Each structure stands twice: as C-alpha cells, then as structure tokens.
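INTERNAL AUDIT FORM
Audit reference: QA-55
Scope: verify that the stored structure record matches its stored sequence.
Auditor: D.O.
Record contents follow.
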Amino acid sequence: MKVALVYTSTTPELIELVEEEVGKVLPEGTEILSYQDPSILADVRAAGYVTPAPAARLIGMYMQAISAGADAVLNICSSVGEVADSAQDVAKYTGIPIVRIDEEMCRDAVRNGEKIVVMATLPTTLEPTKNTIKRVAREMNKHVELIDCLVDGAFGLDQEQFKTLMTEYAGKVADEADVILFAQGSMAYCEDIIREKYGKMVASSPRYGVPALRDALIAKGMIK
C-alpha cells in the first residue's frame, strides 16, 4: 500500500509531526511517497490568496502521486485546502481519495464548541480554515462564532520561542473560546502546553488528518 503526503511547507517540525502520526496510525510497511513544493505557499503568501499557477502546481502533485500508484493522497497545507476540495471529482473518478489534513479537525471543533478561536501565523491560512469551519458547521446544522488570532512575528523563531509566542497570543483569546484551533499543522507541537495552561480543547491537524487518511483507505477496502 502506498500513500502520498503532499506538502507546500517543508518545515522539519511539520514533516516530523506528520510522519510520526503516519507511523502510529497506518499499517506497518505502508510506503510513503512525499511531494514537496514550497514555492506554492510562497506564491500564495505573496499574492494573499491562491492564484491559478500555484493551484495548478498543487494539482500537478496530486496527479504525480496518482500516476506513481498512490492509494490515497493527504493534502497537508491548509492555505490551499480549497484546491483539494476542487480536486474531489478527479479523486472520485480515479478512485484515489484526496484527503485534507484539516477537515476532520474542523468538524471536531464544531462538534465541541460554539466559539472557536482560529490561530494562524499567515492570513492566507486563516481565511481558508475559517471557510472550512463555516462549511462543516452548515453541513452539521450548527452555529459557530469564529475568533481570529493572527500570531505576528512567528517566522524564524526556534521551537521554544515559538511556543512562548503562541502561548502569549492564546492567552489573549482563551477566555472567549470553547475551542482553540490551529490553522497550521506546524503549530501542533504547541498543543499540549496551551491545553494545559488554559484548560481549553486545542485542535491541531496532524492527529486528525492521518486518521482521516486511514478512514479513506478503510472505505476503499485497503485496510480492515
């Protein structure tokens, strides 16, 4: 069995978090195909939204993965999650599911709270994540209130500095929140410290996305 991991951000922390979840959740011996194109996220950040060229390159990576024999594809970047949504007809036609790392996280946040803080270091990740939360809330017939928390000055920090900054920003909004949701998978290593400090549910995508990938493989009959 082969699964493809499609990255537009190649921070070591993110790759480590995702591959750790893959090792825990998917059967031993699963072959991992890794596709990375940081220029996609760079272009999205520069434009402030997903323009046609990076969207085309991302879809090209999905097609590469399918051509290489992947049984399922995990889209890891939330900034371009709506591109994965747009590729669902291709996924159905080819029989190769294209799974978003963040969709099940958004569903669980909606299940567990009405006031959801969305933390991000990029505005280009904040809006697509909020759109996904609103969509799944409509599908679940639930009302949610979204609270933005854009963490300024996060780029270039080491892990300890980043944890400190995330904890500081979370403290500004924690009292308002039922759930604190991380829009970027690379934030996941801050999850435990913020949960313990503020006593709130904290959701990060790697621990949701890989089980969603497994569920897609179960639905295909690849895993029992």
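Auditor finding: record pair retrieved intact. The mean pLDDT is 92.
Action required: none
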